[in-house]
Amino acid sequence: MYRLADACRQRGLDALQLAPTRVRVSPPEAAHPEMTEIITLKADEDGRLFFHWSWDEKICPADDLEWAAHVIKNVVAPEATT
Predict the structure, then answer these.
(1) I need a labelling partner for 18 at 20 to 30 A (CA). Which of 7, 27, 39, 48 fits?
(2) Whole-prediction pTM value?
(3) What span, in angstroms and rounded, lies between the C-alpha atoms of 82 and 79?
């Protein structure tokens, strides 16, 4: 999860690893604190790891950090996405 937090920070988001399987991601400088998300890492029924939104929907496989960070930015800071 530290790698996901780092990928999100590289995109200008605030990201903090809360636990081994959780990262809090928010817009830069809490521009919109209501857009803060807790991203979790969970295994599916086959044991593959996926990132999940706080509402338990899958984002993408955990080995696709770049895509995960892109999608997370589109949700928590859509106005900052280019």
Answers:
(1) 48
(2) 0.87
(3) 8
Report pLDDT digits (tens) over 9-28.
Answer: 999 999 999 999 999 999 88
Please choose, from the candidates 65, 70, 36, the residue with its C-alpha nearest in 3D space to the C-alpha of residue 50.
65
36 Cβ contact partners less than 8 Å away, ≥ 6 residues apart: 24, 25, 26, 27, 30, 76
CA distances from 77 to 36, 52, 68 (A): 9, 17, 14
Gyration radius of the chain over CA positions? 12
Instruction: Please give the C-alpha separations between residue 2 and each of 40, 41, 49, 50, 53, in angstroms, as whole numbers.
Output: 12, 11, 15, 15, 16
Nearest to 37 by CA among 15, 58, 66: 15
Report the C-alpha gap between 9 and 12 in whole angstroms.
5
